[in-house]
Amino acid sequence: MYDVSFGLRPRKYDRSEEERLILDEEDEVSEMYFIQEGIIGIGYYLMTQGLSKKQFKLGIYMKANSFICDYYVCFNKKSEFIFMVVQEVKAFSLSKKFLLQKIFPKYPHIAATIKKGCSDRYKKNVRQRLLKYRVEHVMEINKKSSYKSISIMLKNDPNKFSTNPESQNNMGIGASTAGGNNANAA
User: Fold this and answer.
1) Rounded to the nearest 5°, which phi and psi values hold at 102?
2) Overall average pLDDT of the 104-108 stretch
3) Which of 9, 46, 114, 168 lies at a CB distance of 3.0 to 4.6 Å from 55, suitable for a disulfide?
4) Are both 95 and 157 inside the same structural domain?
5) Residue 184 falls within a domain, yes or no?
6) What is the pTM of this model?
């Protein structure tokens, strides 16, 4: 713990338009955060009339005495979801560079334990829950549409899934129209 304390930096985020988005989907994650005060919501953008950067759904809320982004930092991954301030946040951050270059090489056994714990926790408590919410959202859109169907497939994931049973072989996020994909049909 002593060595880790040298890498901690104070952070403060408020709900202003400029500061409320801590991490966007697909952002490089350079820090993990230990929340001291406030609330951070984790969610995704909604697909209403296409992918909207203005409409989002927060499905998980992290409060004081919790931490976020440890998985992304430990495994050098981009953010899969959005992280947004719900209530002003005061936190300490630990940089990816400090953790991966100074702490993990010095304490490999602890690094392995931390990686295992954060991977299990992220997959069960964040990723699995938010993907479920996202699928439910897409299924609701598909019920309302007469002509389009949205399906979701995860890249590089052996447990790929789709919200559209008729298009199990579809790759990526796509929309298909009822009656086929012939753009020239009258």
Assistant:
1) -110, -45
2) 95
3) 46
4) no
5) no
6) 0.77
